[in-house]
Amino acid sequence: MNGLDLASDPRSAGRPGDPEGPPILRLVGVDKVLDGRKVLDNVDLDIPRNRITAIIGLSGAGKSVILKHMIGLLKPDRGQVLLDGVDLCNLSREELFETRRRFGMLFQSGALFDSLDVFENVAFPLREKTKLNESQIRERVLVFLRKVGLEGAGGKFPDELSGGMVRRVALARAMVMDPEIILFDEPTTGLDPIIRNSVLHLIGRTFQDHKFTMVMISHDIPDIFHWCHHVVVVHDGKVIEAGPPEAVRTSVNPFVRQLVEGDIHGPVHLM
Amino acid sequence: MLFRVAEAIGGKAFGAVRGLGRTGVFLAAAVRNAALPPYRGRDILKQIHFIGVKSLFVIVLTAAFTGMVLSLQGYFTLRKFGSEGLLGAAVALSLIRELGPVLTALMVTGRAGSALVAEIGIMRIGEQIDSLETMGIDPIRFLVAPRMIAALVSIPLLTAIFDVVGIYGGYLVGVKLLGLDAGQYFGRMEASVELADVVNGVWKSLAFSLLIVWVCTFKGFFTERGAEGVSRATTSAVVISSVLVLIGDYLLTSVLL
Q: Cα–Cα distance between B114 and B124 in angstroms, integer?
C-alpha cells in the first residue's frame, strides 16, 4: 500500500489545535433507536483534533448513524454529542445551522445537486452562506477545483461525471467553506482500485495542506490503516475498539481480528 | 393475545398522532419560512414558471371542454323548463363557484404536484437534502417556501384563466352551436354573478394551493427507501391531495355559502 505516512507527518506537530489537546468531538453514552431497532448502544467516542479518524465496521453496524449524530442530522435518544464541549442537542435549529459552518461533509453518493453544473455545485455554499462577490466566488471555486484536479470540468453536470469525479467535486464543495472538520461517509465505496487510491491520496494531501479534523467511514480494510491516525471499530451499535491503527491492527479482540483479516470464520457468521 | 392486540392498536394510534403532529410542524415551518424575508426571488419565479406557466395548456384545454359540456348539458336541461336564457348564468356560476377552483387544483396536482413530490423525493434519497442541512441551509426555506409562494400566486391565476376559458367554451356551444342569443348569454351572467361568488372562488383556490403544496412537499420531503419510495410517495401525494381538495371544497362551500 502506498499510503502517506500521516502518523509521523512533521507538519501536524506544534500547530494551533494541538492533536494532543482535548478531542474536538465527543459522543458520550449515545443511544439511538431507528425503526424499532437499537442502532447505537451507549456509544462513547472521541474524535481527536487535527487528525484523521477512520470508523470501520460491518455494514449496518451504525457507522453512518454515528456520523449523522456528529453533525446534528440525527439527535440521540440518550446521551450527548459534544463539539468543543457544547452539546449539539441543546442548540436551537438556527444555532445548529450556524454550528454546521464548522463542518464539511462528503456523502457516499456525493449528493451533488443534479440541476447545477460542477462549478455551481462548488459555488453553492459560497453563494448561500457568504457575501463574496462573483469574482471572489469564481476565484475560490477555481482554486478548489484545481486542488481536486478538476479545473477543466466546471461546466459538466453530475450525470456526466464518473464516480471518482463526483467524490472529488463533493470534496471540493466540502472544503470550499474552509471548515474545521470534514466528515466522509464511505468516500471510496464503489470505486475501482486506482480511482479509490487516487481519492485516498487526495484526502491525505488535503489533510497535509489544511490540517482539517477528518472523520472517515470506510470499508477499505486494511488499506485505511495507512490513511488515518486513529481507528474506531463499531459493531452492533457499540464501539468495541479505538486507538492508533497499529493497535487496532494487532488487537486480540476476535471480532476486530476477523474484520481486519476479512476471515469468513469468526464471531460473525454471515453464511 | 389481548395484550398484543391492544399494543398493536396503541402503536398504530401513536404513529398516527405522531404523523399528524409532524405534518402540522412541517406546515407551520413552511408557512413561517414563506412569510418571512428574505425571499428567494429567482427560485420563486422559476417555480411560478413550473407550476403556473407550464400548467397553462392543460388548464386551458380542460377549461374549454368543461365549459362546452356544461353548456351542452345545461342547455337541454334548461330548455325543458323554458329557461335556456339562464344558460350563461348557470355556466358562469358553476365554473366560478365550484368547477374552476376544484378542477384547476386537481389538474395542477396531477401535473405539477406529482413532479414536486418526485423532485424533492429524489433529492431526499440522493442525500441532497441532508447535504443542504450540513451546509447550514434550511431545506424548508430553500425547497418548500419558494414552491409555496409560487403555488399561492399561480393557482388562483390559473383558476381565473380556467373560469374565463370555460365561460368562452360555454359561449361557443350555447351561442355559436345551439343558437342562443349572445346578449342573453352574457346579460344573464352579468346579472347573476356577484362579487362574493368570485371572492369565494379565490378563497377556495388559495386554500387548495396551500393544501397541494403542503401534501406534495411533505410527501417528497419524507420519502424513504429508494426509487420505489419515490414512486409510492408520488402516488400517495396525488391521491391524498385530490381527495383533500374535494373534501375541502365541500367544507369551504358550506362555510362560505
A: 15
- Whether the CA torsion A66, A223, B131, A148 is positive or negative: it is positive
* Chain A residues with CB-CB distance to B122 below 8 A: 114
Quote the pLDDT of residue A48: 93
Closest residue by Cα to residue A237 from A24, A27, A30: A30
Q: Chunked in runs of 10, what are the mean pLDDT values of chain A (271 residues)?
A: 51 44 91 90 92 89 91 93 93 91 90 93 93 94 90 92 89 90 88 83 86 89 86 90 88 86 76 59
A242: in domain: yes
- In chain A, residues with a C-beta closer than 8 Å to the C-beta of B142 are 128
How many domains is chain A partitioned into structurally?
Answer: 1
| pLDDT reported for residue A193 | 84
What is the average per-residue pLDDT within B171-189? 95
**Do residue A71 and residue B134 have CB atoms under 8 angstroms apart?**
yes
The CATH number of residue A217's host domain is 3.40.50.300
A260-269: string of b/e by CB count within 10 Å (b at 16+)?
Answer: beeeeeeeee
Residue A103 falls within a domain, yes or no? yes
Asked, for residue A146, whether it belongs to a domain, the answer is no
Which chain B residues contact residue A101 at CB under 8 A?
A: 136
pLDDT of residue A271: 59
- Look up the pTM and report it: 0.84
User: Domain range holding B64?
Assistant: 38-256
3-state secondary structure of A234: strand
CA atoms within 13 A on the CB side of A62: 27
Tell me how close the Cα of A268 comes to any Cα of chain B, in angstroms.
27
A99: closest CA of chain B, how far (Å): 8
Residue of B nearest to A108 (CA): B127
Residue B8 domain-assigned?
no
B30 within a domain of the structure (yes/no): no
Give me the mean pLDDT over the B243-255 stretch.
96
Domain of residue A200: give its range.
6-110+183-261
Could you report the predicted ipTM of this complex, rounded to two decimals?
A: 0.83
Out of B127, B134, B136, whose CB is closest to A109? B127
